[in-house]
Amino acid sequence: MLYSKLFCKTSKTTPADADSVNARLLTQAGFIQKQMAGVYTFLPLGLRVLNKIQNIIREEMEKLGANEILMPALTQEESWQKTERANLDILFHLEGRGETKFVLNPTHEEVITPLMKNFIASYRDLPFSAFQFQTKFRNEPRAKSGLLRGREFLMKDLYSFHATEKDLDIFYEKVKKAYFDIFKRLGMGKETVLTFASGGSFSKFSHEFQTVCPAGEDLIHLCEKCCVAVNDEIIKEQKVCPQCDNKALVPQKAVEVGNIFKLRTKFSDVFSLTYKDNLGKDRLVEMGCYGIGLSRVMGIIVELFHDEKGILWPETITPFQAQLLAIGKEKNVFKEAEKIYQQLIKQGIEILYDNREDISAGEKFANADLIGTPWRLVISEKTLAKKAVEIKKRDSKKIELQTLTQLAITLKR
Questions:
Q1: pTM, two decimal places
Q2: What's the mean pLDDT when you consider all of the chain?
């Protein structure tokens, strides 16, 4: 992509209302633009990152055998009344023509449970799981911290349906492993821990995936022996590590990036979602739900990986693998840089080429650091004289000269 063609450019000015690192850097670097408190537009660079996060999650969901669907964001209020959740203070309520009332969904149990009545009839139809990527809406009283606490945000929902509690338990453990794999691939595996939280009606615990971070508003108590944690909301009831009984739990600030929860028959009972067992008897379907906040993940990654110059994107979700800078005013520099840019594209390298001719070298370097792709490539009279490209890793001070062949090998590692 040519930087000159991007309508969203970086800014030297810190947004006056940026109350977090991710809000400041993502806005200054041209990834997002605030529309109002808790609501953001994802600009081309930001959407590339969001799509890469989504693709990683999709791959892991498909490994579980789940089907991808897309459910509506708008639902009749009647469904929420059935589950006795219509009065939740986080809901956005809308009125249609006549007396019709709607809810903008913050979650989708009220949609998927009645939906599955059309497809589940027998034990032969189970187990089954479906996932989606959908915009969620929450009437958040304290929309703040950039992408960490929003009123509109992107989530992945996975719902599973089972004939028995045992089968639900087996799938639940598979999802738990898939979540660890997802956060590892996103580059935040070391900072993200399984956290025991309140379980609700059917189990002692539910599980959250909390990322340890100074910007976090949650407080967890971490067992450093087995790397699990206990949410502060249950620490009075669970004063030791649930896995190893360690009493020395360390308080840490964290952000919840995912959760998994055994719904059991809570919603299938309300909507009469049943199946016939092998004896022809009607039984309630066992359910589980599993969520990940994609836009929140993007924000927390910036909180974790940045320095005084800008963002440091993990290689798996960076908008581009490298930024190519043409430095100098000589026409032949830009001509050769264009050739190298096209050659790298043909070799499958994702490149953001800063082809602006009226910008100083210092400004281009600062711009590249702010955007934060893993590699910076420089073409100048000096490098052309040596028939090479200057290459520097974003988180290193080491600068090398490489031929185009060497460069392609380095970027594909």
A1: 0.96
A2: 95
Residue 292 lies in a domain: yes
How many separate domains does the chain show? 2
Amino acid at position 277, single letter: D
Distance CA 57, CA 412 (A): 22
Tens of pLDDT along 287-310?
999 999 999 999 999 999 999 999
Q: Is residue 313 part of a domain?
A: no
Cis link prior to 251 (omega < 30° from 0)? no
**Structure tokens that stand for 383 in this block:** 């490098």
Is 323 strand, coil or helix?
strand
State phi, psi for 154 to the nearest 5 degrees.
Answer: -100, 130
On whether the CB atoms of residues 388 and 402 are closer than 8 A, the answer is yes
> Does 228 fall in a domain?
yes
Assign 14 a pLDDT band (cuts: 50, 70, 90).
confident
3-state secondary structure of 54: helix
* Co-location of 35 and 93 in the same domain: yes
Per DSSP, the residues of 198-247 read: E-TTS-SEEEEEEEE-TT--EEEEEETTTTEEEEGGGTTT--S-TTT---
Other CB atoms within a 10 A radius of the CB of residue 335 amount to 12
Tokens of 380: 């100048």
Cis peptide bond N-terminal to 214, omega within 30: no
Closest CA to 307 of 216, 398, 370, 374: 370
Half-sphere exposure of 377 (CA within 13 A, CB side): 29
Contact 88, 105 (CB under 8 A): no
